[in-house]
Amino acid sequence: MTTLHLGPNSTRQSSTADARGAEEDLIRQQLDRLLTDQIHRAARFSSETAALWRLVAPTVGAGKLTRPKLVGLGYRSFGGQDPARSVALGCAFELLHSALLIHDDVIDRDFIRRGEPTLSAHYRDRAQEASMSVPDAEHVGASAAIIAGDLLLSAAIRQAGQAAAGLPMADTIAQFFDLAVVQAGAGELEDLLYSVQSSPANTAEVLRMEELKTAGYSFQLPLLCGALLAGASESDAAGLSEIGCRLGVAYQIVDDILGCFGDPQTTGKSVESDLREGKSTVLTALAAEDPEFSAELASFRAGQSSLEQLRLALQASGAAQTARMLAESLCTAALQSTHFMRLPQQTQDELRAYATFILERKA
Length: 363
What we know:
The protein is mainly alpha-helical. The chain has 17 helices and two strands.
C-alpha cells in the first residue's frame, strides 16, 4: 500500500474543506427552519399562502449559497467567533437573493429556471387548467410570483435585523442590508429601462447597472456586512467590499456570456432570453461598436431578421472574447489590490478560489 504524505498546505486545504462543509450544513439547516416557520405561520391564516411557501421553500438555497458563504468569509476575516451569527445574517442575504430571482423571472418573462418551471409557471398552469386564456393565466402567474418575492423580501429584512440584534454595529449592518435591497432595485429598473432604448446602453452604463443589480447584494455587501458583524471598522470592511465589488461585476459579465452562449442544459436558462427581451448586457454594449452587429440589431428590432441571425452577429463581433478579458482583468485587480494583501492568508486563499470559480463556471 502506498502511503500518502500530506504537506502543510494539503492539510490546511482539507481542514478548510471540512469547515466549508460544516458551514454549508448550518446554512441549509437554518434556511429550513426559517422556511418551515413561514409555512406554519401562514397556515394559521391562509392555506393558499402556506401552499405558496411550500412551493418557494425548495428553491431557496438551491444554488451554491455564495452569498451566505461570503458573509461567513467576511466574518472570519476579522476574527468572528460565533458561526450562528454569520449564518443567520447569511440566510438573510439568501432570502433576498431568492426574492430577487422570483421578481427577475417576472420581469424577464421567463418560465424556466435551473431547468425547472418557475413559480409563475406553476400558477400560470393552474389558471390555464381552470380554463383561463393564456394572457390571463400568465398574469395570474406573474402576480403570484410578485407576491412570493415580496414575502421573501419581508422575511429577509426581518432576518437581517435579528441576526445583528444587540451588537454595536447593528444599525450600520441594517443600513447596509437596506442598501443591498435599494441598489438591487435601482439596477433592475435601469436594466428594464435600457431595454426600451433604441440602441443598447454603452459599456460604462452597463457595468454600473450590473454593479448595482448584482455585484452589490451578491458579493460586495455580504462581505462588508460579515466584516461589520465581526466588529471590523467601516474603513476595513470597505476595503474587503471593494474586492467583492470587482469580483461581483466579473461574475455578472460571465453570466452575460453564459446567457447568450452557455449550454441551456447546464445553465438551466434559455440562450435567447436576453436578446429577445432587448436587455443591455456587456456583450451587446461591446458589440454595438461593430457596425455589422448594430445593423443586424436594428433589422431584428424591425422584425426583418431572426433571433438566430442576431446571435450569429453577436458571436461574429468578438464581444464574448472581449467581455471575458474584462472579467479576467477585474478578478486580477481584486486579487492584486492593497486591500487584498492586508487580509489573512486564509481569506486570500478563499477569495482566489472565488475568482477561479467565477472565470471557470459553466452555470
